[in-house]
Amino acid sequence: MSETGARVGTQRVGFVGLGHMGIPMTRRLLEAGHHVVGFDISPAARSALAAQGGEVADTLTGVATGADVVILMLPGSPTVEQVLGPDGLLDALAPETLLVDMSSSEPARTQALAERAAARGTTMIDAPVSGGVRGAEAGTLTIMVGGSDAAFEQVRPLVQSMGGRVVHAGPVGAGHAVKSLNNLMSATHLLASSEAMLAGIAFGLDPSVILEIVNGSSGRSGSTELKWPEYVLTGTYGAGFSMELMVKDLRIALDLARQGGVPARFGELAAEMWAEALSSLPAGADHTEIVRWLDKVAAPSGVAAEARVR
């Protein structure tokens, strides 16, 4: 189908990337009545899709067969390029298939891929998400779409089954740009909130009381309303978004600032701190574990407050 119309009703959806976000997102698609054919290099991820009623493709390119839409939910541009690359998924797609990159990718690289796709008659758009694993499970993700007006109208009925808020961010690449900037804001306020929380704990304040007061005051943020109460105070540190991915998104956002000639001194400092934490924490650490790093490395007293945080 061309960009001129919107599909309605049940669709055959290819889905590549069945990780922490991909599995609950495919579940929402299945619950909405779509036929989902997925692929992941992980046998456990493929089994998880099958267990919830999805079809598992034998190969990566198998998701393209008969697909109305193919969705990518991958770590970032390098993996997306590898999946689409020479003799890859892009060559297997029928021209009328809509290709949707829901990964956290680099805007310029997304635009270049979209041009490659267009040269062979395929429309590619970007539609990254915010809301984490919890939002994916609940179907409340914010989905920011980059593409033409026609492509946005085409994809909106489908992605609405995965998100509570679907916004047209602008032309292709705009979704990925906004996503990186959103994560720059998220990363900086998690740092600032955590430094303040640890200072309060070191003073002897009850962290739950601090949060109760702050969340009814001007200092509140997603970090104080969700990340601290759900993942830090519980000691789970399991938001489902890795430290590595956060650092990657910070770098994308700061590249955008540099390209636009916009000073980002605070963002640059935050990125340095996040990179230092990434190098200090175990591989695969959740991004909320920045609090552990701050507590052990950057706390003024040098006395770990984590035992009092839990």
Question: Brief description of this entry?
Answer:
The protein has 310 residues and is an alpha/beta fold. The chain contains 14 helices and nine strands.
Q: Outline, from the CA principal axes?
A: globular
The quaternary structure here is single chain
The low-confidence parts are 1-8
Query: What's the order of the H and E elements?
Result: EHEHEEHHEHEEHEHEHHHHHHH
Overall structural class, as computed from helix and strand content, comes to alpha/beta
**Biggest sheet record:** 6 strands, parallel
Please state the CA-atom Rg, rounded to the nearest Å. Answer: 20 Å
User: How much helicity do the residues have?
Assistant: 40-55%
Number of helices: 14
Strand content: 5-15%
Strands of the largest sheet, in order across it?
3-2-1-4-5-6
Count of DSSP strands: 9
Mean pLDDT: 92
User: What distance lies between the first and last C-alpha atoms, to the nearest angstrom?
Assistant: 54 Å
Topology readout:
Elements: E1 12-16, H1 22-31, E2 35-39, H2 43-51, E3 55-56, E4 69-72, H3 77-84, H4 89-92, E5 98-101, H5 107-119, E6 123-126, E7 129-130, H6 132-138, E8 141-146, H7 149-159, E9 163-170, H8 174-203, H9 207-214, H10 222-232, H11 243-259, H12 265-280, H13 290-298, H14 306-309
Parallel strand pairs: 1-2, 1-4, 2-3, 4-5, 5-6, 8-9
Antiparallel strand pairs: 7-8
Helix pairs in contact: 1-6, 8-10, 8-11, 8-12, 8-13, 11-12
